[in-house]
Amino acid sequence: MGGEFTLIGRYFDWPAPPGILGVGDDCALLPVSPGHRLAVTTDLLVEGRHFFPDTCPEALGHKALAVNVSDLAAMGARPLGCVLGLSLPRVDEAWLEKFSRGFRALSDEVGCPLVGGDTTRSVAGVIISVTAMGEVSEGAALKRSAAKPGDDIWVTGSLGAAHVALELLQGQYPEHAALLDTLRPWLERPQPPVAFGSGLSGLARAAIDISDGLLQDLGHILKASGCGADLDYSLVPAHPALKELDAAIVQRAVLNGGDVYQLCFTADAAARADIKALALRHGIEARIIGRIRPGQGIHVSAAPVPLGKEGYAGFDHFG
Ligand SMILES: [Mg+2]
Predict the structure, then answer these.
(1) What is the CA(91)–ligand 1 centre distance, in A?
(2) 187-205, pLDDT tens digit by residue?
């Protein structure tokens, strides 16, 4: 990193918490507790592909970290730290100040300190790469392959808001344009249930964060576990602000809309009381929406629009 890019150090050189060697040496050093495994995940965000060029830089800083700590939560891991790679067409100090503020606020909130990174000049827009590391008790990671027939299927939070926000930004449903202000934060500032997710280790079996849509992501668990699922649409929590939209729009947003960064997980029915207590402790809404069964594919009951006839990408994609 040289020239004007040394300026970037000003925005990202944060003191590391005790016990961690952070920015400033050849490597960061992170302690991993005895009996634990290191959980590592990485995500790449490319301007024009994953975010609009005019996205608020503070929201972008938030989201770049959020999508990674969401993956840690989906593994049942507790965050240890993260590294950031940033490729920028030019040094824009106002942009960097806002981006780093959004990144740092979430990093402080979820306890995932920035411990290193690299920057370089980009020839084509902004590229953001974040790698997050966490730790999870050996044998207690929430692997996709761990679901068993009879398991409850749970989701956290509510679904559909980010997808409809994206559609509104693309100019769809102009008669509902006023909804954008309400829904936009769910697209630009997702709030993954990080502490709740790490608390699920040892309680839940399989988990995934909803990045590509409930049906598609649950499908990944089913495929890895060799199971099928029955979902009751009337139990699936749609974001309350979607009420004014057509049922077909809501259904597609809820079942297939991505960018949610809430968790879908499975657990033995015997774990219900403990999971509800954990959710209460962390202020998280967690609901049972169906059950794992032998076989394959996802059957959705009580859906207002018959599935498979509306171009539901992700529905029954392997059944
Ligand atoms: Mg994921």
Answers:
(1) 31
(2) 999 999 999 999 999 999 9
Helix H segments across 111-212?
Answer: 161-169, 180-188, 194-199
The CATH class for the domain spanning 3-137 reads alpha beta
Does the predicted model carry a pTM greater than 0.70?
yes
Residues around the ion ligand 1 (C-beta < 5 A): 71, 209
Q: Where are the domains of the chain?
A: 3-137, 144-301
Tell me, in angstroms, the distance from the centre of ligand 1 to residue 44's CA: 12
Residue 115 contacts residue 83 (beta carbons within 8 Å): yes
What stretches of 111-250 adopt beta strand conformation (E)? 114-121, 127-137, 152-156, 207-209, 228-232
CATH 3.90.650.10, domain 144-301, yes or no: yes
Calculate how far, in angstroms, residue 207's C-alpha sits from the geometric centre of ligand 1. Answer: 9
